[in-house]
Amino acid sequence: MMILPTRWIWVGIAALFAGHAFGFEQVLLVQRNMVRSSHVYTYHEEDNKPGGGLFIFDLEKKELREILASDEGLILDANLHYDGRTVLFSWKREMSGTFQLFTINIDGSELNQITDHASNNFNASWLPNNEIVFLSDRKPAFAYCWKTTTPILFKCKADGTRPVRLSANYLNDFTPSVMDDGRILYSRWEYVDRPAIPIQSLWTINPDGTKLMGLFGNRILSPATFMDAREIPGSSGKILCVMTAHNRHCHGAIGIIDPEKGGNAQQAIRNLTPEVGIGQVDKGAGNHIRGPYVNPFPLDSTHYLVSKDGSIELRDYEGTQIQPLLKGDANGLGFYSPQPVRTRQKEQLVASTLPSDGSEEKEFEWAEINMVDVYNGLPDSIERGSIKKLAIVQEVEKPLGIDPGRRAFGFQFPVVSAGATYAPKKVWGFATVEEDGSAFFKVPARRPIYFLPLDENGMTVQRMRTFTHLMPGERQGCIGCHADRNYVANEMTSRALALTRGVEQLEKPAWGVKGFNYVREVQPILDAHCEECHGHDNPAAGLELTGDKTDFFNISYENLVRRGTPAENFVQGATSREFKPKYVSWIPTYNGQEANILNIKPGQWGAKNSLLANVVQSGHRDDDGKPRIALSDAEKLRLYLWMDLNVPYYEGSDSNYRGNRGCRQQLPSEFAQTFADIAKRRCIECHTQDSNDQVFTYPSQFALRLDHPERNPIFMAPLPEEAGGSGKCGQAVYKTVEDEDYQKLIRTFDALEAQLKDNPRLDMLTNDGETPNATSTTSVSIP
To answer: Which residues form the signal peptide (predicted)?
Structure first.
């Protein structure tokens, strides 16, 4: 038994709200330090401190009784079984360990460890069949823009056996609970060609991992995050939850969400804590929300418990009755996860529709999708009959944690693109769309996939900037394509043409089912059709499209993607909203570009709105109207698909050079110092130094060419035309290439060339045409 210290305040329950019967006399609590993580998705790894334990607070006896002490570890959260006696909780017994699931009786007896896996296992809830749904990071994957793991939904038996992965998310899932109809309600970090800050929206899934559906907030800018979500009893589906930012810990405002008023509607959000501003759904980035509230628990249709900076309060939804129950220390040990100690009715039991329980994962597993009408939900501007195929695309996870200080082009480390897609893309294949808009096809199970509807030319007519996933053997019917994800239909209409021919195996891409690789899939097309006019020497329109490697990418990629964008002059990725790509219309995903998730106009992004695609489609005609190029349909498809995949360059998120900037950049180790020394003597008359008067500022920050380094402007400009240079300096700094300083600079590339021959960067193919394994952690020193 614990005697209440003076800093903890108890108020008799009878004095709270006269005449209201709550049906309980005790409250289950977790005592711990506040977790002040840097992001809402990092609370399982950051700012974890020991201390506290599990407690029962008796409202009538005015007693705080300790069930379990955790002096050397941290109890993160707890949930009570339907029987009102068994506590399920997440506990890091020692701070050097990981979170595991445990059970204990409310009298402190029968402590049992449920999970025993070398991973974090937490945020657990009971399912009505006595199984447990929880989060785990046992599937190796890491946040693209940070260094932490990405826990996702799992379930297991009550004793921890037969774990099953329910989610195929490659980013984080959050705080699952069970709705009255038996579905699992949870939050999910969303990231298909979107900036990093939004979206953490609300989703539902069946307990067997089937019927994934977006519930609310998948295209909302503010709030950025909805979590700690629970259905309010007797409310017909209204949700009580925390509304907060992305770049902070998990405390924020408390709100009620009514999905019936719209999946992204402002009127669907009711802020119960108006002193905390939550912004508007169509403005900002939702990253400003700063509130004290966390772990709301709906008691009934009128009242809820909540933790306010570690103190427990009892409130009503109207905001007229607010009563402190127990005061904690916001700067020390506080109280969290409040829950009434009482029996409760089990939710509806949802029977599984799968052929197996899914506990055994195989390398290749399949599911089926029945699409009634692909045009259902698309804008009227998309003509019926115009969609011929669906491309099935996977977002590929990041398999390693890296120091964010290595970032480039936004928060990419390893870099995948120049500020466009964070995730590598794998195209699994193509499905046929019938004349009536129906499709019936197999998809890979347990993969985060999305669909691109393609016209007769192979161009995407509308973006799907979200992903879905299915379980092995799942057969899912959907009405059609929707900007907010597809609404699920149980049966496909018997009149659909696709159903009459049976399920279709995907038509595999000509390049195979693997990560899309710009050097392998796009560059050969440019070499075959473009190099004659857009080669090294005097390229037409100043556009060189050769495959010469640069410090991050290659020349053609640098020119096609970065020209006309903030990334042209700023490797880290600018937050400027001015974004006018010259050749390819790609979606910027670096911070500051959040508003582009609201732009769902067909043809706004990708091939349909790109100069490069228009040139290819027209044959790049000369002044007399004669085509200059003639690409095959297969070649056009590769180019268009690359644009519609949001211009990936690398096929994976691993690297042979994990210690370099962006885990990719290659620079000669002696280059910067050598150049600075020469510049002080020979360039200072025309160019200025930076503020510290020590390091000469190289005038172009666009790219450094590694192949044929003599073609870099830094070598060409000081060299007169008659000596093979461009003469752009206006005077012959170097009269010939034999100049001692010129040769000194050129020689700085020799060591890098030798190193890359022994340990290629992942876009530098070996002689057998394969990408080398990413096993080395060798780092070129970065000036």
So the answer is: none
Residues 6+ apart with CB under 8 A from 714: 675, 698, 700, 745
- DSSP for residue 348: P
For 596, list phi and psi in degrees, rounded to 5.
Answer: -70, -10
Distance in Å from the first CA to the final CA of the chain:
62
**Residue predicted with more confidence, 775 or 615:** 615
A 10 A CB-CB count for 625 gives 8
DSSP 522-590: THHHHHHHTTTTSSSSS-GGG------BBSSSBHHHIIIIITTSGGGT-TT----S----SS-B----S
| Spatial distance between the Cα atoms of 167 and 151, rounded to a whole number of angstroms | 10
- Among 498, 499, 366, 489, smallest CA distance to 432 is for 498
Whether 319 and 380 share a structural domain: no
Cis peptide leading into residue 199 (ω within 30°): yes
Return all residues near 615 (Cβ < 8 A) that are at least 6 apart.
none
**Is residue 194 located within the same domain as residue 300?**
yes
Asked if residue 678 and residue 605 are part of one domain, the reply reads no
Neighbouring C-beta atoms of residue 235, cutoff 10 Å: 16
**Strand-strand pairing, 184-189 and 173-178:** antiparallel
Whether cis (ω within 30° of 0) applies to the bond prior to 414 is: yes
For the chain, give the percent of residues with pLDDT over 70. 90
Longest dimension (CA), the chain: 97
Lowest mean pLDDT among 196-210, 284-298, 700-714: 700-714
- Report the domain count for the chain: 3
Q: In this predicted model, what pLDDT tens digit does every residue of 278-302 receive, in sequence order?
A: 999 999 999 999 999 999 999 999 9
Structure tokens belonging to residue 156: 């297991």
Burial class (CB in 10 A: 0-12, 13-18, 19+), 81: middle
Q: How confident is the model at residue 9 (pLDDT cuts 50, 70, 90)?
A: very low
pLDDT at 689: 56
> What is the span of the domain harbouring residue 587?
366-644
Write the CATH number for 37: 2.120.10.60
For residues 583 and 581, give the distance between their C-alpha atoms in angstroms, rounded to a whole number: 6
pLDDT in tens, 314-325: 999 999 999 999
* CA dist 479 → 369, 375, 488, 489, 747 (Å): 11, 9, 7, 6, 63
In sequence order, the β-bridge partners of residue 550 are: 705
The last residue of a domain, from among 305, 340, 375 = 340
HSE value, Cβ hemisphere, 13 Å, CA-based, for 596: 26
| Cβ atoms 311, 324 nearer than 8 A | yes
Residue 617 lies in a domain: yes
Q: How far is CA 190 from the centre of its chain?
A: 5
Whether this prediction's pTM lies above 0.85 is answered by yes
Q: Give the C-alpha separation, 648 to 636, whole Å.
A: 17
In Å, how far from its chain's centre is CA 540? 39
